[in-house]
Structures are given as C-alpha cells and as structure tokens.
Design goal:
By secondary structure, the chain is of the alpha/beta class. It contains 18 helices and ten strands. The chain has helices at about 1-25, 35-50, 65-75, 90-95, 115-120, 145-150, 160-170, 185-195, 200, 205-210, 220-230, 245-255, 265-275, 310-320, 325-335, 350-355, 380-395, 400-410; strands spanning about 25-30, 55-60, 85, 130-145, 175-180, 255-265, 280, 295-305, 340, 365. α11 (about 220-230) packs across α18 (about 400-410). The protein starts with a helix and ends in a 7-residue tail after the last helix.
C-alpha cells in the first residue's frame, strides 16, 4: 500500500513537471533592427520573462536591407516567427491585407496610443489596427556645442538666425558649417525636405490636405522648402555631391562640422563616437513666435503573425509592449527612439531629451510621403529623394520640381487628378 502511494505521488509529481514543461512557450520575434540585439537580450526580454514565467522570447533579426524579402519568404513558407516587427504604413498594410498579420483592435493596450500613433499600422479607414506602436523618431539638427561656444553663437530659432550661424562658420573657416551629402539621396529628403517642410505646410494640416486632394505639390507651401534647400549647398563643404551618409556621420562626430541635419536615431551612436558636447535644435521657423511643427515619425511597431501557434502568449507580450514599463525600458535603452504610448516616460539621455522636449512646444506630424501617397508609380517618396537632391545642387528650380512631382502623383492618384 505504501509502495503504491509512493508510486502515485511520483507519478503525480512527474505529471506536474511534464505539464509545466509542456506549457512553456517560446515566442520568436522577426525584426530588421539587428543593432538592437543586445538591448533585447539583456534588458527587454529579461524584464518580460520575469513577469511572465512560462513564456520565453527570442529576438531573431535579419539584415535591415533584406528584412522585407526574408520576412515575406518566411511567411509564405510558414516558418516566420510569432511576432513581426512592423515598418510603418504600406509594407505592413500589405502584410495585413495578405492575411499575415492579425487584427489587434480589440486589445485593451491599443487604447494607450493616439490615433496618429496608430495610423501607421491601420487600414486606411482605421477599422483595423494590426501592430502595436513601439517608437517614433524625431527630426531636427544636432550641433557641436563647443563650436557654437567658440564663435559665441546662440542656438537658432528662426531661418534667418539659422543661415546667419552657418555664414559665421563659413567665414571663420574652422568647421564645415553643415555635414550632409547628396550621394545617397535619401538624406536630402528625410533630413532635408521632410525635416524643414512641416513648418511650411503646417504639419498634419498640409499632409492630410495633400492626401485629400485639397492641396497640390505645386502650392507655395510645398515648393518653398525646395527653395530653402537650394541655399544649403553653400554650407555643405567641398565634394558634398559625392559624400555618403557614413561620410557625413564621420565628419560630424570627428568634430569637423558644426551642424548635422539629423534624425534622433543618431543619438546613441553619436554619443559613443563624439568627444565633444552635443545639443539639438528643432527646425527653425520663418518668424519668431510662429507655431513650430516637427516630424515625429512613427517608425517601429510590432504585430502578431496570424499563423502563430501561440496566439495567447503573443497577445500577452503585445499587451506588455503597450505598457509604461516597456516604454520606459525601451526609451532609455535606445535613446533617440521615443515611445508612442500616452504614458509619461522620463528620458535620461540629455541629447535625447532635447529632441523629445519639442513635443511640448510644437505640433507633431509624420513624413509627408509615407501614408498612401507612395503606393503608385512613379513613387512619390523616391521621387522626393531626387527632387531634394536637385534642389540642393540647383539643377532644377523649385517650381519645376513641384510641377514634376505633382504630375507624377496625379498620373495615378485619383484625388489629385
């Protein structure tokens, strides 16, 4: 009898152990952010697993340039991970439309995000949300505080002050006034046109009017930023036409340039490279006291593979991503990438704090070409790259560039016809 009881007890213990093991779930995250591997392994995943025993998480990034192709291949083959890191707008919308991403609209955590934050990962009518917003990046200018102090310059607030500062650096000669090249093209649009442009087209007001067909790319507010970019060439240094994005990064972090047109994603990298104090200033307004607008661009979200074998565990993870705890960990582990949740987050990094402080001062918008307007051929985003380069080089007039872009958009986009 005693022996039978002992056998039953051992069997019961074995059953409990077996059940616990069987209930352990491992979630696989697909991502293009291979630079963030240590962040996930050392900070984010341990924090989640500590609160959610029985759920393990593996972060398995691909090379950024290969991510879309690799992910699509995995999804078609049925071998993709449970959680899909989402790029903003059309690439992720296409995954949802193809049935690869689940609708997350019913998740309570989605209530922690504004409509603008969710818009990057929604259907056009907003009826379905398929990725939890994770982070945005903010555009502006990073500057060398030591260089400004040497010349006794204040941080520019208006365009006149901005160009006066660049003139001072050009005349003094110790620094390239501004580090940016046109070889890779995208910087001219991303850190040029879509950086300064929102102050001209009034952020969301202009962007939404363009989508609705109520404004055109030939209107003054869309052409004027090209005229301003045309002035930049005088300050970019010799050979800027052949200068690559890494070249520009090196020129600034080595202390050879005074100003760098930037996205906040540069913060952590620049902190590790520059041996001088840096600050950031927002895109200058035309006149003192004007409302300022910043590109606070929705950049990273995360959704659930509709074919995941672990949907309950995946939703548990996504709910946690929508929490203030995740926002705080992510924002301070990866300074320059800003949480999109409504929860207040205390940012520790000084340079990252400069960027996010503008949310309290300015109206936020996103890059003008990213939602809806680059779905056709010609692609407005890619054409804006070329137009921004042409403006800087002075090879075409701002008016001609606006007309060319408008003709291209109107050729396939009905509201602009």
């Amino acid at each position: 009898m005693t022996r039978n009881i002992l056998k039953m007890a051992l069997a019961s213990t074995a059953l409990v152990a077996s059940t616990a093991y069987a209930d352990d779930v491992t979630l696989i995250i697909e991502s293009w952010r291979n630079d963030d591997l240590a962040l996930w392994q050392e900070k984010i995943i341990p924090a989640f697993e500590a609160e959610n025993p029985g759920i393990k998480v593996k972060f398995t990034p691909s090379a950024p340039a290969e991510y879309n192709a690799v992910l699509n291949s995995k999804l078609e083959a049925g071998s993709a991970g449970d959680l899909i890191t989402c790029r903003p707008f059309d690439a992720s919308l296409a995954l949802y439309d193809a049935g690869h991403l689940s609708d997350l609209s019913d998740m309570e955590a989605m209530g922690n995000f504004s409509d603008v934050a969710k818009s990057a990962w929604q259907t056009d009518d907003g009826s379905a949300s398929f990725c939890v917003p994770m982070a945005s990046v903010i555009h502006g200018f990073i500057y060398n505080k030591d260089a400004f102090a040497e010349l006794g310059l204040e941080v520019p607030q208006t365009e006149a002050e901005f160009f006066a500062a660049l003139d001072a650096f050009k005349e003094e000669g110790s620094y390239i006034p501004m580090a940016m090249g046109t070889n890779d093209q995208w910087e001219a649009a991303t850190m040029g046109y879509n950086n300064i442009g929102p102050n001209y087209w009034k952020g969301e007001e202009g962007r939404r009017a363009l989508i609705a067909g109520e404004q055109k790319l030939t209107d003054a507010q869309w052409v004027a930023p090209y005229a301003t970019l045309a002035k930049w060439s005088a300050y970019l240094g010799d050979g800027y036409e052949a200068q690559t994005y890494p070249d520009s990064q090196n020129l600034f972090t080595l202390g050879r340039a005074a100003v760098y047109p930037a996205g906040s994603w540069e913060v952590s990298g620049f902190n590790n490279l520059a041996d001088f104090e840096m600050g950031a200033f927002k895109p200058p307004v035309m006149n003192a006291g004007d409302t300022c607008y910043i590109s606070d661009h929705t950049d990273i979200g995360i959704g659930m593979n509709a074919a995941s074998a672990n949907p309950e565990a995946a939703r548990t993870f996504l709910a946690w991503v929508g929490s203030s705890e995740f926002a705080t960990i992510f924002a301070n582990a990866l300074p320059g990438f800003y949480p999109l949740s409504n929860a207040p987050v205390e940012i520790e990094d000084p340079l990252a704090k400069d960027f996010i402080s503008w949310r309290d001062e300015c109206e936020s918008t996103i890059r003008s070409t990213y939602q809806i307007l680059s779905r056709g051929t010609p692609n407005l985003e890619n054409d804006t790259w070329g137009a921004s380069v042409a403006a800087i080089k002075g090879t075409e007039t701002p008016e001609a560039l606006g007309a060319k872009l408008q003709d291209g958009l109107a050729s396939w986009y009905a509201p602009q016809q």
